Amino acid sequence: MKWPFSIRKKTQNSNQDLIEHYKQVRAFGRDLNLTLIKQLPKVAVPECGKKLGIFKAGTLILNNDDEIAILYDYCLYHYRRGGKNTIERYIDNSNPLPDSMQSTVLQAMLASFYSIFRVIEIIPNQGARILDLLTNREITLTDISLSETGYLGLTIAGRIVPFAEFHMSSGTLIPLPDGVYEEKITPIIKKFFKTDDPSQMAVLSAGQEASFTAEIIRISLHAGGEDNVFYTDME
């Protein structure tokens, strides 16, 4: 009779260890992001803001504070000089030690991807299982905020950062109102990939990926409007 209990206890301890490790990585990633943001050229914010539809007539037009985080995230990954984004240039200049936390987080950032997802299961106190609607791949996302306020069937747009032990978002996930994916996002997918069949999708160039991501973000922000409530995990 003790055997099932010991298995359950071990699983609980494993989950607690994962969450603690996730919180450490999340905190380190926030500090690293602040460092990277300081490396952005001054022209990055207005240029990227225009692509996202939130910079007009020399002014950032934001409905709430989360939108500036979304803008900075886009800048870090998609504003390029000499063919490299801010993350790649930082790695070249800082030469992080192999197997260090800094190196691990930076390499995970380079492996990140932007897509649209649907929540297919809520994992209490941990996150959610999500379906990548672009590739039809299931991902277990560690995100405390999403586990507390998300719900089955929720559609979200955002960047996923993969680690060996878990996946996490790069910061802020944008919820899509019902019908927006089918009516407005699907045409964008077909425009860039010429198909809606995940097995037939080609890999985008850096420039194409930047344009694709910008269109998704612009539609997502506009669809939610001033009442948009984002999913930002502060754990």
Describe this structure in words.
- By secondary structure, the chain is an alpha+beta fold.
- The protein has one domain.
- It is 49% helix and 21% strand.
- The chain is built from eight helices and eleven strands.
- The chain has helices at 2-37, 44-52, 66-78, 86-94, 101-110, 144-149, 180-193, 206-224; strands at residues 55-56, 59-60, 80-81, 84-85, 113-123, 127-132, 137-142, 155-162, 167-169, 172-176, 231-232.
- The strands form three sheets. Strands 5, 6, 7, 8, 9, 10 and 11 form a seven-stranded antiparallel beta sheet that branches. A two-stranded antiparallel sheet has the order 1-2. The protein has a two-stranded antiparallel ribbon with strand order 3-4.
- A hairpin with a 2-residue loop joins strand 1 and strand 2.
- Helix 2 packs across helix 3, helix 3 runs antiparallel to helix 8 and helix 7 (180-193) packs antiparallel against helix 8.
- The longest helix is centred in the N-terminal third of the chain and has 36 residues, at 2-37.
- The protein is globular and about 45 Å long.
- The two termini are 37 Å apart.
Indicate the percent of residues in helices. 40-55%
Rg, Cα atoms, Å: 18 Å
Secondary-structure-derived class:
alpha+beta
Order of helices and strands: HHEEHEEHHEEEHEEEHHE
Main sheet attributes: strand count, strand direction, barrel closure: 7 strands, antiparallel
Mean pLDDT, all residues:
89
**Residue windows where pLDDT falls under 50 for at least 5 positions:** 1-10
Q: What proportion of the residues form beta strands (DSSP E)?
A: 15-25%
- The tally of beta strands, per DSSP, is 11
User: What's the N-to-C terminus distance?
Assistant: 37 Å
